Structures are given as structure tokens and as C-alpha cells.
Please model this.
Amino acid sequence: MTTLYEEIRPEPHGGIPVRRVTITVNGEKRVAEVEPRLLLAHLLRQGFKLTGTHTGCDTTNCGACTVLVDGVPAKSCTMLAVQADGHEVMTVEGLASASELHPIQEGFKDEHGLQCGFCTPGMMLTAKALLDENPDPTEDEVRWALSGNLCRCTGYQNIVKSVLWAAAKMRPAAAADQDGS
Amino acid sequence: MSQALDEIKIGGLGASRKRVEDNRFLRGKGNYVDDIVLPGMLHMEILRSPLAHARIRSVDASKAWDIPGVRLVLTGEMMATRNLAWMPTLSYDTQAVLATDKVRFQGQEVACVIADDPYIAKDACEAIVVDYEPLPVIVNPTQAMAEGAPLIRDDKENQHDNVVYDWEVGDKAGTDAAFARADRVSSLELHYPRSHPSPLECCGSIADFDRSTSKLTVYMTTQAPHIIRAAVSMVAELPEHMIRIVSPDLGGGFGNKVPVYPGYVASILASILLERPVKWIEDKSGNLISTGFGRDVYLQGELALRNDGKILAVRMHTDADHGAFFSDAQPSKFKIGLMHSAFACYDIPYAHLTARGMYTNKAPGGVAYRCSLRVTEAMYFQERMVQAAADDLGIDQAEFRRLNFVRDDDFPHRTPFGFLTDSGQYGKCLDVGLQAVGYENFLKQKEEAKKRGRLLGIGISTMTEPLGAGNSREYDILGIKMFDSAELRVHMSGKAILRTGAKTQGQGHETTWAQIVSHELGIPAEDIVVEEGDTDTAPFGMGTYASRSTPVAGAAVAMVSRKIRAKARKLAAHLLEVSEEDVEWELGRFYVRSARDRGVTIQECAMAAYSNMPDGMEPGLENNAYYDPPNLTWPFACYIVTVEVDPQTGVWDVLNVVAVDDCGVRINPMIVEGQIMGGLTEAYAMASMQFITFDAEGNCVGSNYMDYLLPTAWETPGFELHEVVTPCPHHPIGAKGVGECATVGGPAAFVNAVMDALKGTGVRNIDMPLLADRVYEALTLRHDVSGAPPVKTDDA
Ligand code: FES
Ligand code: FES
Model:
């Protein structure tokens, strides 16, 4: 927001107190004033305009809203924005660089791991957390790791293949990392 | 010397081209309705009825109005003053937008709040006080038909009972006579439970009425934007050219996003009243309890059989539970959709079907949930019945099917209900499936396992189904004929933009339509942009559902490309300075018949259309095509499932799933296989866990994802896919519909497999879903288990 001009908003409705939160989102420090009851998913989507994080349910079942909080998958519909204060959040927008897709994204494209694309951001972030921990998962391990994320389109088989594709692609790098440490 | 183009390399027909839409979805840059933000936008929430049937004594919204940030509260009474309390459905009934007199199902829309943000709108909904007088509740057709049953639709003149329709089709006398001649009769009775398509994305809209231009723009989760425009024009009494419906990226549809919902209408009215954009995004429970469900049909029927296994006739009766309003989306001519496509793959001389529809105190719908208008119920009954009859006769279930299949040389074949099937290799598909699953071997294994107390089962489902409504002679929605359209504009560089009247929801039209153009014109697929869903730019079409896009819009894409090619031929003749008759076509290029080397590319023709056209020729290279298919397309499929049932618990595990689909020519095999796997998963879901039911008070059991179970990656089995290709004889590129086949034909394969494992126990039917407790009950008590509502709840 420019400092040259800014609309002065009237007092928040009903005198509800707001809290200031500082969250590192995709490597960038973001500051926001939020109502304590605001969900993290809504802050990301409406506040930070990162609409790649989707919401597909109201009961923490679908996983479309999955983001990584300090590297761990979290359902951002079930976390208050204030709970993310001081933490690092990664959303789907943080996966690719400007020019290159992340191997997981490449895998989803190559193995046709998405149809409508609504579950895809959550699936990919859950997959990333899995591969960060376990660079060489079995099919069953992938299926188990993804079992908190629903997909209505693909029947999962191609999603599983996508993740395994990405694992294979990332492995030399992962191995090199381990050698170096 | 130019080389002929390699069609696969340019992304033409048959290429497993990677999807272009993925580029934005993978980066989180899709553009779903909830992603759209307009300046000054307000937010709407809906207050829903907690009761299934009750008279509304009063609605007091004064406390809601008092909440800071609330801009408008809409109630039924306010809608009524604008003649908007009721709206027409797509099946010639009416549906309440906001309830005025009564609520007729749990979750019905009672009031709407429009506020500065969605949280305030939700708060305000809770502050609205509605005084209800509870009424007796009806949750199934038997209750609806009972003597003295309360009248649900007392709003309708001349409606004195709860019957929506009473309908029949087929040859009653011929069928009766065939039954009289039969050696034996096999019968079956079952309930296909209510299910919800439940796309991951819920429904929603942003209505934006601009007073200065009088134009209404609505961004909306709809599979059929043009139909919606017609409906909005009717309901809101706005002229059609002042309405623009935009369906952006959709997070799945599966038939759920075909009907007109009260939320859309209320957001439109709110925007008109407030002169600001109004966004409504449904929550999941709202989606599950109020929007278009699928199925909920009670089916019974019988087959007249000869001892040698020949089926002589079929008799069927269906009682469909339509909920409180008849808001199916279906052709107006057929009251129970295409239920009478049942048994189309079998050579049966006589058939008769009677069908009744009933109002109940449940959500309205009856939409084509990954289904061509009730074919899912039809094929489920067909394949369950066929297995039961084979068992009754003591004939092997594969052999019994083969015995009764329409033979390859019998096409075109008139089904006993009057459809015309035109092609197929049913026996071959079955063979491929049996071979893949290792049929004989499995039967031996099964016998072996039985000796050790283990229960293995194998289920087969074979079916052909009618995809691609219409032709316009027989198919219309609200009188609008079911054709479809495409419009192609080739720019001077030979790159192009294609628009169609269909609307993708994950099927990958942006990728596949370009492949059809590529096949017809030789323009590389990557040079073609595809756009759908905006009624201001897209040609009029009926939208995407019932697997009709490839059969109808896809055909229109081929036809418009051919029109372009015809004009390009004239341009080529001009450029080559020969007469048109001397010009030959090969992919991407015209050449002089007598001198193959002398030619011009389609791109050169495109340039000429803007820079060097012959005298008297209209400039430009664009056209459109409206395609009215001569017949439906008839894909065939064979699904085979093997399972093991645990007799101690009733839990069953899927061992193997084999799918053989004959959907004609495959435009993009990768996408086709993706569709089949998605369909198989929904089949497995319905067979194993996914259903919506109701308790005696009409409370919806399955109103959220904790109660409405959907399979995850963990439960979902793996799939083995095979294909047989019989091109559709009348489709321009020989393709047939496919998206729904596995959902239509699949459930019976899973259920037949479990029933096969239970063979010999005397159990004839367990209703889907085959929950472990139902299977256990059937196994131990040796009786059929029905899951029809009302169900007992924990506190009942
Ligand atoms: S939106 Fe479904 S789990 Fe978060
Ligand atoms: S791709 Fe549509 S929900 Fe997964």
C-alpha cells in the first residue's frame, strides 16, 4: 500500500478489537490487523490475495486449504490467523519460481494428477511435506500421507503417480543434500 | 518439399497432450468464483430452515438489521412483493426462492443477509428469529403415498396428493404375453440411495448490476451458462441482452451445478437493490443439504426367462423421491430421465416400465450426478438384475450376458424401449475384461478359498448407455432444444481462438477442443486458445453435463473447423492460381493435385484471408457451427471387480478393478483415462460409503464431510484400464461420451462382487452403500438389508 494516500476506514464494526500479526508468507514478511476470529485461510485469500489456497468444507475434512506452517501441513481453515503470528507459511504460490515449476508441480502435470484443480494446491503442499521427510516413499506411504486431502475428480491414482514422479525427480538433489551434511 | 505433418506431434487426435489449463491451476492461479473480488463488493449469507416441514408463523429480522455492517436482509415476504418468492425449475415445477408459507425440507432457504463481510453476514443470520410450527414429515415415497399423508405442495393449485408424475413407456401387452410364456421369472427389488455429487468447490455467485448501463453480470458456478441466462431472464424479468453470465473455473460439477439455486437469485436481487456487487459463497453443509442430489429411486422389476438363458422380456417399476420440488434437470419429454435406456445392450424383445415421482420433505434435485439423466439407476438395476437372474438359472454370469448381448452384426438395433443403438463390440469388451482379471483362475481360487472359510467374490457389470443429448427432435430443456455450438476465429498468423457452448469443469476442454481443430486443420494445438463460459462471447449452447460435450460440442468443433477448411480451400486455389477442384488437402496444407510440391499451408491461407483474398470474397477466416446430433452416442463398458469379504466383520476389500471402455475414438487418451478413473472412484464411493439419508424427522444425515463419507487416497483401490475402439458411426470424428460411464456402470460391479461372495446364503440384495454392518447383518441373519430412510440416529 502506498503511503501517498490511503482511505481512512471508519472504526471496525461493533468495536471488535483487532490484533496485529506478522507472518512470513512464501518468504515475504506480511503484517496485518485481524479480528481474533479470522481464519488463516481467509487472511491468506482475502487479506493477502493469495487465492490459490481453497476452502472446500467446514469440517476440516477436505484439505483443499492445506498450507505449510513452519514446514508442517496445516489446514488453514482450522487455524486462526492470530495463531500463525510469528510463523512461516508456505502456500501454493510459493512452490514455483517465476520461471520454473517445482518438481511436484511438474509431476502433477506430467501424470495428469489434476482435473478441476480445486484440491491440487492442498495436495501438492501435503506431498511436499511428505517428500521433505521421506524422499523415497512407497505407493502406500504416499496414499497414507494424502489421506487428509479429498479429491472428487481424479480417483487419486494419478495423484499418487505424480508424487512418485516428483520423488524420483527430486531424489538426486535430496541425496546430494544428505551427502553434503 | 514439405513433409506431411505428424498429427501426434502437433497435438492432434490421439495425442496424450499435457493439459494447458494445468499451467494456471498448478500455480494457484485458477480463477474460481470465490477468487473474484469486485470493487465495493458485499457478502451474502443464507439462513436455512432447521426443520424439514413446518409452517412459518413469523420471521423477525430486526436484530439482524441492527448489526453494524449489515446492508440488507431479504425474507420471503420481501421477495414476494417483487414476485420473486418462487421461481420456475428446469422441470416445469416451481421452487421457493425464500420460504414464505412453509418450509418443506431441512436446509431450505428462509432469509438472506447482505453485509460488509461474510463474518458479519453470518452473525446477522443467527440474529434472525423464525417462529416455526412443526408439521408431520415425509421422508420416503411410501409415506408420501400413505392414506392421509400431509400435502407437501399445498402451494400448488390442483395438487391434491404428493405425486409429481405417473408415467409409463414400452409395450405392456407384449411384455405381459412374454411373461406368460416364460419358463421362469426372476425378480429383484432395491433402493438406489440418495447421493450428492459434492464437487469440492461449493456453489456461489457474484451478481453485479450496473444501474448506469442496466446490465447485470453474474459470475457463477454453473455448468450451463446459457440455460441460466434464459432462466434469469425469465425470473428477474430482465432482457436477455442485458444479462451476462460468466462461469469461470469450476472446482468440479458432476451435475450439481446445473440447476438454478435460490442463492443465485437472491444475490441478483440484492445487487439490483443495493447497486453493488454481491457475493454469495455457499458453505459445504449448505451445499450438501440443499443443492441437487442424485438418485433416491426405489426400483423393482423382473425378467421373463427361458430355461436356456434367453431373456424374453423385462418389466420395471420405479418410485422416485424428488424431494420438495421437482427440480431435476432433464429433457422435458421423459419424466424419469432416460431410465428406459435400461437393458439396451441386451437383445430383449419386450419391455415395459412404469414410473412414479413423489414429493417428500427432502432437498430437491434428482440431478444427473455424473450421469445421463437416471441412466445410473437404470444400469445399476439392469446389472444387479442380470446377475440375480444368472444365479437363479444357475448359468455363469459372464455366459448369461454373452448369451443375451446384442451381436456385433445386429446394429442398428432398436431397444425394446425404443432407443436406437448403432454400434458396439460387446462380446469383445467382455472377453478383454475377463482375460485381464483372469476369470477362470479366479473362480478356482474362489472355490479353494471357500473351503478355508474365506469369501471371495467377482462382480461384472456390462452396459451401453445413451450419451450426448440430444437430438433436437426428442431432447429439450424448458423447450430449448439440446444442440451445441462452436465458433472458430483464425487470426492472420494462423493462430486461433475457439469458443463453444459447453463448459469445462475439469474435463480439460481447453486442451481437447484444440486437438480436434488441430486434427481438422493441421494448426498445432498450442496455437489454439479455447474459451468457454461467458455468455457475451460464447455461442449459445446447453453446457456440460451428462457426458454430452464431446458428442455434441466436440462435434460442433469438428464441423466449424471443416467450414474454415472449405473457405481456406478457396483461398488456397487463389494463391496457387488453380481451380478449387484441382486442390487437394493433407493435414495442414493444400496442394495442387498434379504437383504435390506446389502447396500452401493453412497458415498461409489464413494470412491471405486478411491480406490477399480473391475478388469478391468476404475477408476474414471465422465461422460457427450449431450441431444437432442425429442420435445419441452409445459407449459400451465392462467393469469387473473382485473382492474378499471378511465374514467376522462384514468388511470387504477390493482385490482388483478392471475397466474396459469402448468410447469410440479417443481425442486425448490421457484425459479419457483420467475421466474413467474418476468415474470408477465415484462408483466405489457409492458402493462402499457415500450416501445421504434422513431420520424420521427429516434431519439430513450426511450434511457435512464428517457424516458424508468420501473415499480418500487410502481407501480408493487401484484401477486397471483397457480399451476397445468402435468408432461412433455418426459423430464427425467417431467419438462417444465417456465422462460418466464408470460411475454409471461401476457400482453394480462392486455390489455384484460382494453379492457373489455371499452366494448361497439366500441374500438377494443389500442396498448401497455396502457398509460393513449391513454386510455383516446380511451374512449372519441371512436376509436382505435395506438402507432406505428413515434411519435410526444415535439419539433415536
Ligand atoms: S477447507 Fe476443508 S479442510 Fe480446510
Ligand atoms: S482435481 Fe478436482 S477435486 Fe481434485
In short: The longest helix of chain A spans residues 157-180. The helical segments of chain A are 40-47, 103-110, 120-133, 139-145, 157-180. The radius of gyration of chain A is 18 Å. Strands of chain A lie at 19-25, 28-34, 66-69, 72-75, 88-90.
